[in-house]
Every structure is written in structure tokens, then in C-alpha cells.
Amino acid sequence: MKMIKRLLTIPMVFTMALSLASCGSSTKGESADSQKAEEQTPVEEPAEKTEETASVQEETADAQKVLVAYFSATGTTKGVAEKIASVTGADLYEIQAAEPYTEADLNYNDSSTRATVEQNDKNARPEIGSEDVSMQDYTTVYLGFPIWWGEEPRILDTFVEKYSFEGITVIPFCTSGSSPIGRSGSNMEALAGSGTWLEGRRFSGDVSEEDLKSWIESLN
Ligand SMILES: Cc1cc2nc3c(=O)[nH]c(=O)nc-3n(C[C@H](O)[C@H](O)[C@H](O)COP(=O)(O)O)c2cc1C
What is the dihedral of CA 53, 196, 147, 152, to 10 degrees? Predict the structure, then answer.
């Protein structure tokens, strides 16, 4: 009986020893792997990916920075500018006259009124009263205005001479009683002396966002 017990005990002890050894080695292996993972994965790879992703996002955000700058004496162009901003997700900037235009100033039936006198003088440069805009932050600028005597109001000339449009695509748009945008875009492009100027377009005040969207898509 003693002999039988001894014979049974030897293989059991041997098997336990073996399984303990293999268990021990597998635990050691796992902890070595996880230690490696701790050393490499969290520190090196994601850190690099995060920086990379952030810089791509910044570039994309920069690439899409759009401004709608506009002058509007009686609110019609302002309405169109707001619709363009809504369609494009652009920032809005109002070009305000330091000395606001009164109703009398805008009376085009009287040749001695301010707006008409300014339009008759190519060198008139009405002062801008609104705060400066950080133009270099933008890559696309929609530039809106009403037509006065067939072209852009002189305060637009003040605006385009004031800023550099280097690296910026400028897209003029206007509202009017019926006149087309005419030579307004080329006038301003010449005065600005920088930027890529696209052909502008005239809209009526009640243009829909849908129509503006189609126009904007056609520019690409
Ligand atoms: C001084 C002055 C001159 C204008 N000249 C023209 C013109 O030559 N052709 C035209 O169709 N509309 C003309 N208009 C009408 C405006 O272009 C039109 O009402 C415009 O939509 C007004 O925009 P706003 O409300 O943004 O100022 C003139 C308006 C003013 C005040």
C-alpha cells in the first residue's frame, strides 16, 4: 500500500511542479508584454497621432476661414450678407461709415447730396468707423455693397485700399434697384492691388438661401 501511495505521489508532484513552472512563465510573459505596451503604446504612438490630427484639423479650419464683409446704407445688402454667412458659416463684418449716411445723404434725386457728390469724385474716401477686421485670418472674403450710380460706393474704395488681400480670394456681390454689378469688381481689384478677385454678382434683397447656395457652389 505504501509503495502504491509513493508511486501515485511522484507523478502528482511532478505535474504540479510543471504546471506551476508554466503558470509562472506565462504570468511573467504577460507582465513583460503589458510592460512593453505601457512603455510604447500610450507614450509614443498616440502622442504623435494626437499632434498630427490636431495640426490637420487646424489646417482644415484655417483653409475654410470665410468672412462676409459688407456695407449697407438701408439694410438690403445686410440681409443678403447674413444669408451668405448662414450658408457658408462665415464671420460677418459690417463696414460702417464713421459719419453715418442720413436719408438726406442718400437722396439720389438731388445732385448735391452727400452720396451723389462722393460718387462723382473718384478720389473721395469716406472714413470707416467700425473696428478693424483681422483680414489676414481669412482666405475667402465675400464683399457686399449696394450699387450707387452704377458702381461701388466710395467707402468700399476706402476699405479695399486699407487692407492687404494677399492670398485671399475676394468675391464681390451687390444689391441694387436693377443695375448689374458692372465694373465695381474691377474698380476695387485695381485699387486693392492684391488678392484673387472672382467675378461678382448682383442679387435682389429677397434672394433665397437656396439660390445663394447654388451660386456659391458654382464658384468652386
Ligand atoms: C445714392 C444712391 C444711388 C443709387 N444708384 C443706383 C443705381 O445706379 N442703380 C440701381 O439699380 N440702384 C441704385 N440705387 C439703389 C440701391 O442700389 C438699392 O436700393 C440697394 O439695394 C440698397 O442697398 P442697401 O440697403 O444695402 O444700402 C442707388 C441708391 C442710392 C442711395
Answer: 120
